[in-house]
Inverse folding.
């Protein structure tokens, strides 16, 4: 991390004493008095301006960390300086400590209204001035520190997000499978935080079949996302089992049980699809039940099973089904059925099935996911509470004679 | 999520209400501390008043199960209906934690 900004409590005082303080006063005696007061307290970087114009010019040449500002000055008053500084994006958060002799309640209100951070009365009480200077500098450096840390984390998360998106199937792979399989693949992936615990993927197995999975790691955010990398790496070690969903899940599970922390697991669905016959062989590990959608009905696949990463003794079973021409296989993560809609009710599996049916009958065809999610996002009241994955495999009808 | 613990001579019943999701992580762990301080023989999680449990919630049940095994008490899930019942069935959690 940027060491220049990793201000810890120990070196905060040192940073403060090195802060650049600009004292603005038209009376030389006052500038001298405040300057000496600050120097005696250990401040080493003090500059002086004789009036408002002078002050703004100096600030534009080098940003101070704090301004100690007199109110009554010729040419440009302290009020105007405050307003000018607040109107400028670069100085809108610069601490301004105003000092003034006259002190009616109305004047105090006006001082704060024009943008001052704080107020000290003249004649200056030196310990009070120093206490306020120190407090505002501490705040400034701590906020700066937090803001730097925030920016740093944001950059790190963005990088991690790119890495995670690279785990998802790339467009070229999707197109390759679409062409070979005579299908249209629609996929949407959104993390609720920068990083997510969802993943989906596909891979060609041979000339006439491909495998596809959806995975949802329990929880979400950074922890869950690290587990998606773990699962992805482990899946690659079982390529020889890609054709056998139950064996694939069994081996994946036994590899992951040891490394998954207690209370974390992944629900999964893995299917092998024969592109000539449309036969589906699949095994479930507790993922939401996928749908097979045809013109007249929506049926569910039995994806019940022990999620991966919980117990070594979990077993999985191969089941079969059929994806006919004109039908769609739809897999989704639980956020679609568990997020409350504007009526306060969550959709549930039945609700989602009804919604999918009605979209299908509207003739959305190969834009099912797109249209479904448009409705979903219109309906939910909050931001996405969990990661979202929705993938549809539309098996196109062969045109006669082709 | 809210909960109430009834202790009948070491046989505990935790009556939950509301949702058990990712955001209840801290209160769930506090509840587990509560249970372990009551030297339980057994504990029933009564889920009848729970409308929704997400994957993180299921993970908390697994943590409770681990704590039960370590602490030598029996954990039992009861009363799940609707979405909660489907989640337990879908993830076959009843094969790991006794449920009725």
């Amino acid at each position: 991390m940027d060491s220049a900004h990793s201000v810890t409590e120990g070196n905060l005082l040192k940073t403060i004493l090195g802060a650049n303080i600009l004292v603005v006063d038209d009376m030389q005696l006052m500038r001298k008095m405040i300057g000496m007061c600050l120097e005696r307290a250990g401040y080493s970087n003090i500059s002086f301006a004789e009036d408002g114009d002078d002050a703004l010019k100096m600030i534009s040449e080098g940003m101070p960390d704090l301004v100690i500002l007199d109110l009554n000055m010729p040419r440009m008053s302290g009020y105007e300086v405050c307003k000018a500084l607040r109107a400028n994006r670069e100085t809108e958060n610069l601490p301004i400590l105003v000092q003034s002799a006259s002190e009616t309640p109305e004047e105090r209100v006006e001082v704060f209204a024009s943008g001052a951070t704080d107020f000290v009365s003249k004649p200056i009480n030196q310990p009070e001035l120093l206490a306020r200077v120190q407090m505002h500098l501490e705040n400034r450096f701590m906020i700066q520190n937090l803001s730097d840390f925030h920016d740093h984390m944001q950059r790190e998360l963005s990088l991690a997000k790119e890495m995670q998106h690279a785990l998802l199937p790339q467009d070229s792979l999707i197109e390759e499978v679409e062409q070979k399989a005579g299908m249209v693949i629609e996929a949407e992936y959104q993390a609720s935080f920068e990083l997510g615990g969802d993943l989906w993927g596909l891979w060609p197995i041979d000339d006439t079949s491909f495998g596809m999975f959806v995975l949802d790691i329990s929880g979400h955010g950074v922890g869950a996302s690290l587990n998606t990398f773990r699962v992805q790496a482990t899946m690659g070690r079982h390529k020889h089992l890609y054709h056998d969903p139950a064996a694939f899940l069994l081996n994946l599970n036994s590899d992951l049980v040891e490394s998954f922390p207690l209370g974390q697991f992944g629900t999964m669905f893995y299917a092998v699809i024969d592109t000539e016959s449309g036969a589906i062989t699949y095994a479930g590990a507790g993922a939401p039940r996928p749908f097979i959608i045809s013109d007249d009905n929506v049926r569910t696949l039995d994806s019940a099973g022990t999620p991966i990463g919980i117990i070594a003794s979990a077993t999985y079973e191969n089941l079969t089904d059929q994806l006919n021409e004109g039908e769609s296989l739809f897999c989704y993560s639980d956020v679609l059925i568990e997020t409350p809609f504007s009526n306060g009710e969550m959709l549930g599996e039945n609700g989602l099935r009804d919604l999918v049916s009605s979209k299908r009958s509207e003739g959305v065809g190969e834009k099912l996911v797109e249209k479904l999610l448009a409705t979903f996002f219109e309906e939910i009241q909050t931001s996405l509470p969990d990661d979202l994955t929705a993938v549809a495999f539309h098996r196109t009808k062969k045109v006669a004679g082709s | 999520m809210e909960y109430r613990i009834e202790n009948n001579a070491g046989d505990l019943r935790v009556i939950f209400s509301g949702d058990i999701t990712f955001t209840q992580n801290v209160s769930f762990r506090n509840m587990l501390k509560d249970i372990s301080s009551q030297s339980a023989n057994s504990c029933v999680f009564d889920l009848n008043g729970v409308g929704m449990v997400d994957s993180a919630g299921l993970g908390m049940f697994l943590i409770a199960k681990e704590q039960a095994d370590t602490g030598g008490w029996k954990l039992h899930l009861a009363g799940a209906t609707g979405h909660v019942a489907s989640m337990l069935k879908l993830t076959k959690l009843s094969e790991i934690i006794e449920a009725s």
Remarks:
- The interface with chain A takes residues 21-22, 52, 54-56, 58-60, 62-63, 66, 82-83, 86, 89-93, 95-96 of chain B (CB under 8 Å).
- The beta strands of chain B are 2-8, 11-20, 42-53, 74-78, 98-99.
